């Protein structure tokens, strides 16, 4: 009887811990833009800032080029320099029913959320996130943004709950 009670208490403690962990993760506002003309984001974007992750670690001069394919999907070509050598990865994205949300895959049939969280009224910058708070990108149509504009974009990400202190600012030459 005591053993069952102890097991029950341990399971309750584990459940409370798991719920607490999940609550912290949900503090990120992942809502995408309310409308998006997919054609408007085609072309080359410069990565201004990002969160650190292994597949772009140590990379500078990073760009993303989006090309609309005849079947309505998007080719995503990411390029950058790591230790002076070009690194290229090509993936494919497919739109979802939610405006501003795509599902992108760089490996076989494993897709991840690619959420356009904000886009400038003139289309010159955008903020990209995913279903995880570990991924965030600030992209621009130009290699640099005015400091005032960048501060504004970073403040938008912070208002959404992202830890903007973790941003890595990408060298673009």
The CATH architecture category equals Beta Barrel
User: What Rg is obtained from the alpha carbons, in whole angstroms?
Assistant: 19 Å
Strand proportion, as a percent range, falls in: 35-45%
User: What structural category arises from helix and sheet content?
Assistant: alpha+beta
Low-confidence stretches: 3-25
Strand order of the largest sheet: 1-2-3-4-5-6-7-8
Model description:
This protein is an alpha+beta fold. It has one domain (38-169): Calycin beta-barrel core domain (Lipocalin, Beta Barrel), CATH 2.40.128. The chain has helices spanning 2-25, 147-159; strands at 43-50, 59-68, 74-82, 85-95, 101-107, 110-119, 125-129, 136-140, 168-169. It has an 8-stranded antiparallel barrel with strand order 1-2-3-4-5-6-7-8. The termini are far apart. The relative contact order is 0.19. The model is unreliable at 3-25 (pLDDT under 50).
Summarize the topology:
Layout: H1 2-25, E1 43-50, E2 59-68, E3 74-82, E4 85-95, E5 101-107, E6 110-119, E7 125-129, E8 136-140, H2 147-159, E9 168-169
Antiparallel strand pairs: 1-2, 1-8, 1-9, 2-3, 3-4, 4-5, 5-6, 6-7, 7-8
């Amino acid at each position: 009887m005591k053993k069952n009670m102890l097991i029950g208490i341990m399971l309750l403690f584990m459940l409370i811990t798991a719920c607490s962990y999940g609550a912290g993760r949900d503090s990120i506002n992942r809502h995408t833009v309310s409308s998006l003309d997919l054609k408007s984001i085609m072309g080359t974007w410069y990565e201004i800032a990002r969160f650190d992750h292994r597949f772009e670690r140590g990379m500078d001069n990073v760009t993303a080029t989006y090309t609309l394919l005849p079947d309505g999907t998007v080719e995503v070509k990411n390029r950058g320099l790591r230790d002076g050598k070009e690194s290229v990865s090509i993936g494919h994205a497919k739109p979802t029913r939610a405006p501003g949300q795509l599902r992108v895959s760089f490996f076989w049939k494993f897709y991840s959320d690619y959420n356009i969280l904000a886009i400038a009224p003139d289309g010159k910058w955008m903020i990209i996130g995913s279903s995880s708070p570990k991924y965030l990108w600030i992209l621009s149509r130009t290699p640099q943004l005015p400091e005032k504009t960048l501060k504004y974009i970073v403040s938008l990400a912070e208002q959404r709950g992202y830890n903007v202190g973790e941003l890595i600012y990408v060298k673009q030459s």
